[in-house]
Amino acid sequence: MARYADDLSLAHLLADTADSMSMARFRALDLHVEAKPDLTPVSDADTAVEKALRATLARTRPRDGVLGEEFGASVAAAGPGNRQWVIDPIDGTKNFIRGVPIWATLIALMEGDQPVVGLVSAPALGRRWWAATGHGAYAGRHTAAATPIKVSGVRRLADASFCYSSLPSWQESGRLDAMLDIMRSVWRSRAYGDFYGYMLVAEGAVDIMVEPELSLWDLAALIPIVTEAGGTFTDLTGRPGPGGGSAVASNGKLHSDLLHRLG
Predict the structure, then answer these.
(1) pTM exceeding the 0.85 threshold for the entire prediction
(2) Using an 8 Å Cβ cutoff, are 146 and 249 in contact?
């Protein structure tokens, strides 16, 4: 269990830095927002947080690479290696710039193509989730108030709480009809969006979260938390890991039925 303890401690320190910076800009009247080439928004908080985390990692983990949403990939000062930190400085930027408190900093450590440490910090919600391979999954305001978390025991889609991203993204992926059929079949459906649905799966508050199109920085931190909480995390084809560019997270018991319905 001690293998990733230092890395997990560093992830918490990084999150502390991110929280202080992002909260200082949340609902700020002078928040500066621009459109990226893909027309998604980026705020001055996104870029400032990522720069700060990269600077800390350069000092503390000079042998590790870094991949961030705003500034791309950088090779470790010591040369290419097997370890890479993956950062989304503010996941849920559209919420952030509109004053909605559901946004978070996502921090992951990958060894090869596998995420082994994941931390999600949502300071406006007063909540943080974290996990590392072999350590289990936890949630709380900070490590001193940590509570182990686990997925639900729901076994039938008819009894399931189903969480998803916006319906237009499913229409674009050609799976809108399948999604609507699932939504008619489950007990309850809600679009919590971004990181939050996955954390609710890990806590057992909902049973399924799905998204059709994601980048590595959207996914990497979520996977260890869901899987260490006892859940299953794959892409839409059923392949585990973050490489597929889509996400199906569940309590495990509903996974095969869900993948079959999503086709």
Answers:
(1) yes
(2) no
